[in-house]
Each structure stands twice: as structure tokens, then as C-alpha cells.
Write a structure and sequence with these properties.
The strands form three sheets. Strands 2, 3, 4, 5, 6, 9 and 10 form a seven-stranded mixed beta sheet that branches. Strands 1-11-12-13 form a four-stranded mixed beta sheet. Helices cover about 35% and strands about 25% of the residues. It is of the alpha/beta class. The radius of gyration is 22 Å and the shape is globular. The N and C termini lie far apart (about 45 Å). It folds into two domains: about 210 residues, Rossmann fold; about 90 residues, GMP Synthetase, Chain A, domain 3. The structure holds guanosine-5'-triphosphate (GTP) and magnesium ion. Guanosine-5'-triphosphate binds next to α3.
């Protein structure tokens, strides 16, 4: 039977809860698997744009976590799960570290830093994603990341050096690893020159308690399977928190709105996409046709901006819409028909 949910501009709490129920327990729970399976909760932290969400999507083989070429795509804690060989990996995708100035500039929620700390409290293992292609930051970890790791130094952690595909020469990698680990992995010094002199802890650029280091490309998948196997080895026998067929803790409403936001971030320049207000206004799931119909309102601050986004003859909006549809099909693994309506924000009346 078709499930029809008409949304007012803001969905009520009870309707959101309905969404959650539909996606979290769509099939009967497998009780025996739940009680005998293995679970590992993995917090993925790192600087903005380092590739955290892309990596999780690659491992889970679903575009659960919105990703874009701009910073601060992820603004809240998102769980994404995958299940294999009676083991459930629960990823906790987090926002990148953010300053108060950036929060104001990009119109970001206050809760971003607390989302990172919350993920650490739930984690069995912490993965730090680092963009090795960023020439300004490749040789040191962000001080906030070091602070977070030090705050939970009893939790095992591993370093993921990402975007290796962008490097012309791999020669610099050993120096980068040495800097990011303070020359020490799993309690063992990395042999070679530059590791003999005693370092002042204030000048250290990395964290010396990583148990492993992975060199990967989250985009093309190189090295990603090694991380999955490492996590499966770190899973512990425990009752599953989620049934094996659950793949996220987010509602379809959030997944759709975040996917739309990410695509506008990809397509629009500078701060423009951060000024948009995106809301799902209609959602219908036709189960027998494996199809989702949805409509999203994108509120722009001015008429000029609305015309700019639409592009000549609405061409640009059509292009964005087609990318959004493809991404949503990759999220829900179903046919998705999506409508995007641009609306100009009404001025407050005197
Ligand atoms: N070339 C290359 N690009 C990558 C790789 N991993 C991620 N990217 C790109 O980097 C950009 C940022 O990726 P995200 O996954 O959104 O990064 P993030 O760390 O989640 O970013 P925030 O949520 O903003 O903190 C996207 O354009 C990705 O396609 C990689 O291994 N190689
Ligand atoms: Mg992200």
C-alpha cells in the first residue's frame, strides 16, 4: 500500500517519528543475529572537507552522508551502518572542526563541536581523516583534533591519510606520516632520519597514540577495504543496537534535505549556497513500485539570487535536480522522483 505523507513546511515531530519508524524497522528484527553478532562504533573525525563523509559512503556502499566540494557540508552527527559476516559497523559521521567566525560566516549551527564530542563518547574506535593533498595543512593535525584525541586517549584510534590519488609524488608520504604521528605508531618509533632528536611536546604537530595508519583514496576506493577489515577485526561481541537491515539513524526528511543542500554547495559559488533554507514539503513512498516521490522547497534570500540559481531558462536548476535525483537513488536504492521549487524569502511585514 502506498504510504503517503503530506508535509507542511515544517514536519511535525510525530510525522518525523513516523519516517524514522519506516526506515529503522522496516523488516522483522532478527533476534538471534542481534544477540550473537559483533558490533563496532567508529567515530570519524577530521578537518572540514578532508573526505570523512565520502569515506563512510564508500565503505557502506550507499550515499548516506552528504558530501560536497565545499567545507562544512556535514553539520550534525549522522550514523551510517553496514553489516557483513554477522558484524555491524556503525559509523558516526561528524562535522569538521569549526571556528566561531566560520559559524557566523556560513550560517552554521552552534552544536557542531558538541556533535564531535558526542561521537567520541559513543565510539569504540576513532578514525581521523586527514587531507594529504592540502599543501597548507598536510603536515599537521588541527589543534582541535589533537585536543579531542587527548581527551579520549584511552579509546583506540587510527589515522587515515586521504586523497592520496591527488599526489604527484608519493615520496613525501613518509615525512607526512612522521609529522602526523610524532614519529610513533602503536608505541613504536618510526625508523629513519629525523626521529632521533627529542621533541618538545608543545611543538608536536601530531598525535603519538595512533595504533594504525592507512593511506587511501576515499574517492576511488584505494585502501578502503583495508579499513573495513581493520574495523571488522575490532568489532566486539555485543547485542546489536540496530537491526542488521538498518542503514542510518536519520529520517528520510533529513537525508533528502542534506542531499539537496550538498548539491547546491557543489554547484553554487562561495557563500551563496550556505544562505539557502532547504525544506522537504512532500514525501510519498510507493512500496510496491520501489519508488519515492518528493518535493523540496529551496528558499533564497532574494529574487536576484533565485534567478541566478535557476540559470538561463532554468537550465542550471534542471542540471542540479538531475544530480540530486541520482544521489537520492544512491541513498534509498530506489527510483526517486524529485521536484525542486525555488522560492524567494518573504520580507517580514512592518
Ligand atoms: N581526489 C579526491 N577527492 C576526495 C577524496 N575524498 C573526498 N574527496 C572530495 O573531497 C570533497 C570533500 O569530501 P567530504 O566527504 O564532503 O568531506 P568531509 O570531510 O565530510 O567534509 P565536511 O563535512 O565539510 O567536514 C568532496 O568533493 C569529495 O569528492 C579522495 O580520496 N580523493
Ligand atoms: Mg562531511
Amino acid at each position: 500500500m502506498a504510504t503517503l505523507v503530506l508535509c507542511a513546511l515544517r514536519l511535525s515531530y510525530s510525522k518525523s517519528r513516523y519516517f524514522r519508524a519506516a526506515f529503522i524497522s522496516s523488516q522483522p528484527e532478527r533476534d538471534t543475529e542481534r544477540s550473537h553478532g559483533k558490533v563496532v562504533n567508529v567515530a570519524i573525525i577530521g578537518a572540514p572537507n578532508s573526505g570523512k563523509s565520502t569515506l563512510i559512503n564508500k565503505i557502506t556502499e550507499r550515499k548516506i552522508c552528504a558530501a560536497s566540494n565545499k567545507v562544512h557540508t556535514t553539520t550534525k552527527l549522522v550514523r551510517a551502518m553496514c553489516y557483513e559476516n554477522n558484524t555491524q559497523i556503525v559509523f558516526l559521521d561528524t562535522p569538521g572542526v569549526v571556528t566561531d567566525k566560520e559559524k557566523r560566516k556560513y550560517n552554521l549551527p552552534e552544536s557542531m563541536l558538541s556533535a564531535c564530542y558526542k561521537s567520541l563518547r559513543c565510539a569504540d574506535v576513532v578514525g581521523v581523516v586527514h587531507d594529504v593533498s592540502n599543501r597548507y595543512t598536510k603536515d599537521y593535525l588541527h589543534s582541535d583534533i589533537i585536543g579531542m584525541l587527548n581527551a579520549v586517549d584511552e579509546i583506540p584510534s587510527f589515522l587515515i591519510i586521504n586523497k592520496v590519488d591527488k599526489l604527484k609524488s608519493k615520496q613525501q608520504l613518509l615525512t607526512v606520516i612522521r609529522n602526523l604521528t610524532n614519529g610513533c605508531i602503536a608505541g613504536n618509533p618510526i625508523p629513519g632520519p629525523g626521529n632521533s632528536k627529542k621533541k618538545d611536546s608543545k611543538t608536536e604537530k601530531g598525535y603519538n597514540k595512533f595504533s594504525d595508519v592507512f593511506l587511501i583514496s576515499a574517492l576511488n576506493g584505494d585502501g578502503v577495504q583495508d579499513i573495513k577489515e581493520y574495523l571488522m577485526c575490532n568489532a566486539k561481541t555485543a547485542g546489536f543496537q540496530y537491526s542488521p537491515d538498518t542503514w542510518t539513524d536519520q529520517t528520510p526528511q533529513v537525508l533528502i534535505e542534506e542531499a539537496v543542500r550538498a548539491k547546491f554547495l557543489d554547484f553554487l559559488a562561495q557563500e551563496i549556497p550556505y544562505k539557502l533554507n532547504i525544506q522537504l514539503e512532500y514525501f510519498e513512498e510507493i512500496e510496491e513500485e520501489q519508488k519515492i516521490l518528493c518535493s523540496v522547497v529551496v528558499e533564497c534570500p532574494s529574487d536576484r539570487l533565485s534567478r541566478l540559481i535557476a540559470g538561463a531558462g532554468g537550465g542550471r536548476l534542471q542540471q542540479i535536480k538531475s544530480h540530486i535525483r541520482n544521489d537520492l537513488m544512491d541513498v534509498f536504492k530506489k527510483t526517486v522522483v524529485v521536484d525542486i521549487n525555488l522560492k524567494v524569502k518573504s520580507k517580514p511585514t512592518e
